[in-house]
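Record 1 of the preview.
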Amino acid sequence: MISAKWVRYCEICFKGKAYMLRSGYYESIDINGGSNFIISREIDMSFINKVHWHPFVEILISVSGGNEVEVNFNKYTMNLNDILIIYPGDLHAINKCSGTSLWVAQFSSELLSIINEMNSQMALLSQLPYLKYDSSCADCDRTILILKEFFATRDSDAHLKEVHMYALLLSFFEKVGQNCINQRNEALPGIESPKQNMTKKMADACLYISENYTSPLTLDDAARFMGISKSYFAHLFKQYTNSTFVDFLTEERVKRAQTLFLNPDVHIIDIAFDSGFSSISSFNRSFKKITGLSPSKFREAMITHTK
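->
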């Protein structure tokens, strides 16, 4: 169990996502042999019921029923061919599995973040990490086949197999992205009520911010995008997201900075400006307020745990 004190100190509750920074829950992952992927058809049982996080993307595929996984305090019971994506910084634990009933793939988020479109859509993707298998759905079959081919290719002796695996990974996330878009659209079918229409507009506003947070974005810009007054937009945004525009924008920028820290050669001042901050002082202040650590301390922790 996690103490309430620990949760208050380490968790940022925002859109269901938790960002853990303390070393006690950090999982160090080594990419050995020059491979970009860690692939296993068996779960390390020492991690059962142990809450942890890591700066890598992890994909779990259930090859039998009855697996139980918790991500950011959301519990998932995974049946055959269900898929769960765990993003960098997600607090998670495998509560129940037989060891061989879950397959796992882990890889650096940089493989996705170098693609601008993936970067801009990450906020949407991370909201819907669980893909429940439906045998009557052709897209579900295609998605699971792509992922199973990804695992099979890792065990093959084919030339350029990691190139093929990367292509399969991008195809997989293309399917995931389309599924997220479809779910968002299906949530508001037919003739929309005023409340449904506004909910959809606010989702679009959040996506607009997530796609433009590296630019000098203002409340006026977001209100203009919505076609309403600044004060009315600020009121609606707080009502629908339980966050102010400034807090939302700042957290998006800090999340971006955290991924940039994965590259040890990038200077902190460059990370600040590349994440959308206008000054190093505002970056330092905001980063520590949200994460509990200064940027330099965060970098030290990352270096220490990735050696």
